[in-house]
Each structure stands twice: as C-alpha cells, then as structure tokens.
Amino acid sequence: MSIADRRARFSALHAREQLFVMPNPWDVGSARLLASCGFEALATTSAGFAWSLGKLDQNVSRDELVAHVASLADVTTLPLNVDSERCYPDDPGGVAETVALLAEAGAAGFSIEDYDPATGGIDDIEVAAARVSVAAEAAHRLPEPMVLTGRAENHISGVDDLDDTIARLTAYRDAGADAVYAPGLHHLDQIAAVVEAVGVPVNVLALPSAPTLAELASVGVRRVSTGSLLAGSAYGALLAGARELLTAGTSSYAESGVSREALRAAFVPGTNS
Q1: Alpha carbon separation from 185 to 40, 82, 206, 249 (Å, rounded)
Q2: What residues have CB less than 8 Å from 129, skipping those under 6 apart?
Q3: Residue-wise pLDDT tens digits, 210-230
Q4: How many Å apart are CA 213 and CA 206, to the nearest integer?
C-alpha cells in the first residue's frame, strides 16, 4: 500500500461513522506486533519513543522523530499517525517544515499540542490556534493531504476545565484541524459533551478509568488511542521481572512472556500487516 493509499485510508477511517482503535507502538518490534493483531491504524507515542532512547518525554529531537516515523512506516502498511508534540516551532523552518518532513517520512496523520514544556503550562488559545493553522495549511496543501489532530492538553497538565477544553478544541477545529483530542478525559458525559460541541472526529485516550469502547462508540467517539500506556506496561513488566530476579531469585515473570508463535507471525516477512 502506497503512502497516498495509507493517507486516503486514514482519512476514510475518520469519515466513516464507526469507532476505530489506534494503538501506539514505540519501536519497530512493537509496531509489527500490533499490526499483526488486526488494528486498522497505528500511532507513535512521544513518551514511549523517548523511553526507548533512554530519554524522558519532550526531549526527542525533530531529526530523531522523523527517523523513527520513517522506520515504522517502512515495516507496516497501516496508516501511521504521529505524536509530534508542538511540531517543533523553534526548529529551522518551524511547524511547516516539520509537517513536510513527517510527510516525507511516510506519516498519514499527525497531531499538534498546546502544552509548552519550556514554561510548564498551556499556551494561550490564540497562540495555539495560530500554530494549528500553520500546520493545517502545510498538511492540506500536500498532493496527498495528512489528517491533522489538534490536541488540548489541559486534563493531563493539571487544568480540569472542560469549558476551556471545548473552547480550545473548537478553535483548533476552526483553524483547520481535521480531528481533535483532549487526553485525560475519562467521564463519559464530558466526552459526550466534547463530541457534541466540536462536530469533528474526536480521539479518546484509553485510560484504565475510561469508558469501554462500546460506551465511547455510543456517544460518537471516532478514534481511541493508547498513548504511552502500552509502552509503560511493557517497561513495567520488564522492571518487575528484573526486581523479582534480584530479590527473590526466581523467574516466574517469564511465564507471561510473548509466545514464539506471536513473534513469528509478526516478524517473518510476508506475514505481518
């Protein structure tokens, strides 16, 4: 499947009135494993990828991200959405150049968020919407446009203000975002309020406290992603196993490891999606 086909497929997933799940791999192996499970799209995770480099989130360079996207796009035919944080507005060429680089690397879509790690706070809505507008123009003028997701980071950044979140997502929609996302929302009534207010496809993060997929579908959610949660679970299992080995001297952790059959199905050429 060509990159153009993947972008068309990703756009079609958003256009249909049916929820789809888009898990977030953090390296080539996890991407191939998730693709083998039958998902319809994948997305990167900024935190999970940073951890794979031995870094904390918000510390990955644009060059590292672009290379990561290219490596994942090369091993699966599924549409790939990119967690591109703020789209590196301070790097050469700014947001527009980041969009061009992600497109060249094979992305089908990408997101842009309003959290500023330099200040530890949320950008003013006008500043954030202007950045979404730049990203939208760059994404939509491509021969094969990418899906742009505007993100409001309030609820994972200590700002529990649904009215402000809706105002932000609406502004990002008006600035050209094709989909919107407010990670951290987990009450079904709040999620339903966002869906009703914004009128474009809404992504929800699959938190342990979040509603079920069926409940999310019932209020019109179009897309569900896992963020860094799968990566965090994998790293948590690794640490738990290492600590068991050091403290108890046992290896019962290995009883729940991935099967060779699953690895073969994902990694042998021609058998993964």
Answers
A1: 23, 20, 9, 41
A2: 168, 171, 172, 174, 175
A3: 999 999 999 999 999 999 999
A4: 9
